[in-house]
Amino acid sequence: MKTILEIKNLSKNYSGLKAVDNVSFKIEKGHVYGILGPNGSGKSTTLGMVLNVVNPTSGSYEWFEGTTSNHDALKRIGAIIERPNFYPSMTAVQNLELVCKIKNISKDKIEEKLAVVDLLARKHSPFSTYSLGMKQRLAIASALLNDPEILILDEPTNGLDPQGIRKIRDIIQDIAKSGTTILLASHLLDEVEKVCSHVIVLRQGKTLYCGAVDEMNHNYGVVHLDAANRDDLFEFLKGQPYAVSVKEEMEGFKVVLNQPVDLGKINAAAFAQNISLNKLYIKKQSLEDQFIQLTNHN
Ligand SMILES: Nc1ncnc2c1ncn2[C@@H]1O[C@H](COP(=O)(O)OP(=O)(O)OP(=O)(O)O)[C@@H](O)[C@H]1O
């Protein structure tokens, strides 16, 4: 698998504040990656560093397996890290023609890229008449003009209404299907869950999780149990291989699982130890619960 970007122990300090703290991850070709974290967790700073607009305090990164300098790599990257900004009185086509001129690239792809972002019908309208969603879509078209190998987006749906959000997400997925690798920063778990295959979760500049979105979701839940004799039940639970942790609460015990369990077998095993359960049920944790747990308690 071709590596598009490798970040190694990247850190950025702002007068004592660790905005990004020893972050490492790899972006492989063809996947959609999300950098997920609450406001101020270091997402934009991380993107700024790999796009050569923020100087790292320490650590390094390498584009395209080191086959090109970080400066030349930028020609193979499409990035939108600021609010879309075009000339208000110029049309979409005129603005994109200007982008081609500035970047010294061919104008041949303008129509094709406007089609990708569903703006062909409005291609001759002035930018000032566009909705926020359309402005964002034009920015995506602009970033695609040089057929980049990777598209980088910082909070691509910020400020959009639900329809606008849906449209941008559909477009991102279409672009990914056509083979372009995508890296997007978002504070929205739902966005990352819907759009990304892989996620790097940041909190206060530190990586809390890095891996497949599916695997982050892969958990076996929590079993809730209770019995008249809690001491016996606690002893029993402590020895069970499926129990990551056993916590006593008002309503009984909560056991976090590390594997799937059969509640019938748990009941039978407890009964065999003379423990008669008066409560036994399982609750699966949602991805949202896990994200909140990750970002709050680490
Ligand atoms: N130029 C700067 N000077 C000083 N501190 C900065 C600067 N840029 C960012 N920071 C701080 O670094 C931390 C990380 O900011 P960053 O913008 O990377 O986070 P973020 O996850 O992208 O958040 P948001 O979604 O709010 O933009 C924050 O505490 C921020 O205040």
UniProtKB/TrEMBL annotation:
This is ABC transporter ATP-binding protein. InterPro entries: AAA+_ATPase (IPR003593), ABC_transporter-like_ATP-bd (IPR003439), ABC_transporter-like_CS (IPR017871), P-loop_NTPase (IPR027417). The lineage of its organism: Bacteria, Pseudomonadati, Bacteroidota, Flavobacteriia, Flavobacteriales. The keyword Ribonucleoprotein does not apply. SUPFAM superfamilies: P-loop containing nucleoside triphosphate hydrolases. Residues 5-229 form the ABC transporter domain. It comes from Nonlabens arenilitoris. Signal peptide: none annotated. The keyword ATP-binding applies. One of its GO terms (molecular function) is ATP binding. Coiled coil: none annotated. Belongs to the ABC transporter superfamily. Keywords: ATP-binding, Nucleotide-binding, Transport.
